[in-house]
Write a structure and sequence with these properties.
Oligomer: single chain
Order of helices and strands: HHHEEEHEHHHHEHEEEHHEEEHEEHEHEH
Shape: globular
Mean pLDDT: 94
Number of strands: 15
Structural class: alpha/beta
Distance between the termini: 41 Å
Radius of gyration: 24 Å
Low-confidence stretches: none
Bound molecules: zinc ion
Length: 428
């Protein structure tokens, strides 16, 4: 990985204390932990591999002159004191991955923040307010179908009773897994950080999409983080023999569901530019070649960075289901499975990022985040901002995930400029 990172690196980007070779080395070192046979990354939340990655980053934090602390949820903080004892600015991400994931999703955000701290140490810059590099635990949540565990505990919102009931595929409970990492439900309850001690959280993350690539831009400013709503629809028709039932005498659940899926595709653009809706899962019953489908269960994932257009879209989807039900005689029922609040990012923080991007010779470009991130959780309580770094082919959660070192280092410079400028401004 190291050679590939360095192969097209423009070393003139290493300046102002920021060192691209060091960043490349660290990305490569982290990628060795939980390295899979397919060249991917396997570091589940609260696993031995996530622990090993945290310990390695802690060592680097110490080298960068940071004071290292860990909270009861296993979240790691490397702190640099500021000139004044003001609420701190935090920046970071996660080091866990999905099974056989990539090497940039998460680590880039942690190592970018660390690179800024190290650059400050080397150039003798002392920020106005304290700065902390953060690793949030178990962001991906692949093990327990949860996720964002560390950041949720950090804001004191983790449903501990629900966590107690969770088991992984090997039958290990959440508590048993925590115990292996020296943690417990009780220590997690203590992880809540006083919101008044934190002025802002900033996360650098790979885009996991192709917008920046299409626009030939290295970085982009995130306008908001879309919150997903998951809806489960059941289409109840009537199963029957595919040969003996005339077309006029059918209540085909799948035919009705297909018409509905077509509608779901068309609706988002009518409410906003950033709204999306996806049908990604479908169960057909009885699912036989020569049987008219009697029942279909399908799931719609609806997202937007603003709550109002998202709700509008949900209403339109529900209406579409009703209309199709009326037209086909197939009964449609639905229920809501998940509802996460979208987090728009404050305009003043977007503008501050915009100026930092321009200062580094890049044209400012704004885009929404369709995926959830730790910044979404933290952003409900503390001002949060995000910067995306271009992803090659938009591939993510896959060993082929890639961002060029040039893009990563540009991201560090933009983050550094942004942090230095926001140190003086008082985020409310
Ligand atoms: Zn991530």
């Amino acid at each position: 990985m190291l050679n590939q990172l360095l192969s097209d690196y423009n070393s003139r980007l290493s300046h102002s204390g920021v060192n691209g070779e060091r960043l490349a080395n660290r990305l490569a070192e982290l990628s060795k932990i939980g390295h899979t046979s397919e060249n991917g990354s396997y570091r589940l939340g609260f696993s031995a591999e996530e622990r090993q990655a945290k310990e390695l980053v802690k060592k680097w934090m110490t080298e960068a002159g940071l004071t290292v602390k860990e909270d009861g949820a296993g979240n790691v903080f490397g702190r640099k004191e500021g000139r004044r004892n003001l609420p701190a600015i935090l920046s970071g991400s996660h080091v866990d991955s999905v099974p056989n994931g990539g090497h940039f999703d998460g680590p880039l955000g942690v190592l970018s923040a660390l690179e800024v701290a190290q650059a400050w140490q080397e150039t003798g810059y002392v920020p106005e307010r304290p700065f902390e590099v953060v690793i949030f635990s178990d962001e991906e949540g692949s093990r327990f179908n949860g996720g964002l565990t560390g950041s949720t505990a950090f804001v004191g919102e983790l449903d501990l009773e629900r966590q107690r009931t969770m088991t992984d595929k090997d039958g290990l409970s959440f508590e048993q897994v925590l115990a292996k990492d020296g943690l417990s439900i009780e220590t997690i309850a203590e992880a809540k950080r006083n919101a008044e001690d934190v002025a802002m959280f900033v996360e650098v993350h790979i885009e996991q999409g192709k917008r920046l690539e299409k626009n030939d831009l290295q970085v982009g400013i995130v306008t908001g983080i879309a919150g997903p709503v998951w809806l489960e629809f059941t289409f109840d028709g009537e199963a029957g023999h595919a040969g003996n039932t005339p077309m006029t005498d059918r209540r085909d659940a799948l035919a009705a569901a297909s018409a509905f899926i077509g509608k779901v595709q068309a609706l988002p653009r009518t409410v906003s530019d950033s709204a999306v809706a996806t049908v990604g899962k479908l169960n057909v019953h009885p699912n036989g070649v020569n049987v008219i489908p009697g029942q279909v269960k399908l799931y719609v994932d609806v997202r937007d960075i603003f709550e109002e257009p998202r709700n509008q879209l949900i209403n339109q989807i529900l209406e579409a289901a009703e209309v199709i039900s009326g037209q086909t005689g197939v009964e449609v029922t639905w229920k809501e499975m998940i509802r996460k609040q979208p987090v728009p990012i404050r305009k003043d923080l977007q503008n501050l990022f915009s100026k930092a991007v321009e200062a580094n010779g890049i044209e400012p470009y704004f885009l929404p985040s369709g995926a959830g991130h730790d910044a979404m959780i933290v952003g409900r309580h503390i001002p949060a901002a995000m910067l995306f770094v271009r992803s090659q082919d938009g591939i993510s959660h896959n060993p082929a995930e890639w961002s060029s070192l040039n893009d990563c280092v540009q991201g560090v410079h933009v983050l550094k400029t942004f942090l230095e400028r926001s140190m003086d401004e008082q985020p409310e």
